[in-house]
Design brief:
Length: 252
């Protein structure tokens, strides 16, 4: 089983747990990577090391690989062509954020008929066996609780998509010093850096951010924390903006 297989199984599991209506109907591409299986909440279950590994598996899934998803032919053809290129753009799927895809019924049935078989553990004392059997149940309960919490937040008013949206890492830019602030937009830099400083973890990789510092780029994944992107057209937006200035889509 590779990353693509694990991603499809995780999508089906999360849909059944939090979005059961989507098991038999289509949904937007943006809903898939922002709500159903966002990287920051599922990276351990998917066993992926980086955002790039996650995006590669996501592009394969959206392209219709192995018949796991059905969807817009233009979307799947564009992703197939990009995956076959020498240096594929792993963020191209964001250009199809409003396109629709659906779980393939035959693929879901095949998955149910071939569940993942866990290796049989060696016999253990009664006390140890009781503790071991309780641990997987606790982990599963915590995972389901996170999925339901994410679904509840998505359905509540004012739900924002900026926290689940990420973009390609950018090269580090020179930060303005305290003695010589940027002449172009000092107020924006100060405000967005202050917002990033108030955050305790990176919105893209969930890494803990250092306290008491003016943070512009995440020290772990390199993402710019002072901007967000429209989930529909990928336009760069300032933190706090509620609507896209290009397509008018609500982002927070």
């Amino acid at each position: 089983m590779d990353a693509l297989d694990r991603l499809f199984r995780r999508v089906v599991h999360n849909v059944r747990a939090a979005y059961p209506e989507l098991i038999n109907q289509s949904f937007e591409v943006s809903q898939l990577y922002q709500q159903v299986v966002p990287y920051r909440l599922n990276r351990r279950d998917l066993a992926v090391e980086t955002v790039e590994d996650y995006e590669l598996a996501l592009m394969q899934l959206l392209s219709g690989a192995r018949g796991y998803l059905t969807g817009d032919p233009d979307l799947q053809r564009a992703l197939q062509d990009e995956l076959e290129s020498v240096n594929p753009d792993l963020s191209i799927y964001r250009a199809f954020a409003t396109s629709h895809v659906a779980l393939a019924a035959e693929a879901v049935r095949a998955m149910d008929q071939h569940p993942v078989v866990q290796p049989v553990a060696a016999p253990a004392p009664v006390a140890a066996a009781v503790g071991a059997s309780a641990e997987p149940a606790a982990v599963a309960a915590r995972t389901t609780e996170k999925i339901r919490a994410s679904a509840s937040a998505a359905k509540s008013p004012g739900f924002g998509t900026a926290a689940a949206t990420h973009h390609q890492p950018q090269p580090p830019a020179a930060m303005p010093s305290k003695s010589a602030p940027s002449a172009s937009s000092p107020s924006r830099t100060a405000d967005t850096a202050s917002d990033a400083q108030n955050e305790t973890s990176c919105r893209y990789c969930s890494g803990s951010l250092p306290a008491g510092k003016n943070i512009v780029f995440c020290p772990y994944c390199g993402h710019d924390l002072t901007v967000q992107h429209c989930p529909a057209c990928n336009t760069e937006l300032e933190i706090g903006w509620r609507f896209c200035i290009t397509c008018g889509r609500q982002v927070t």
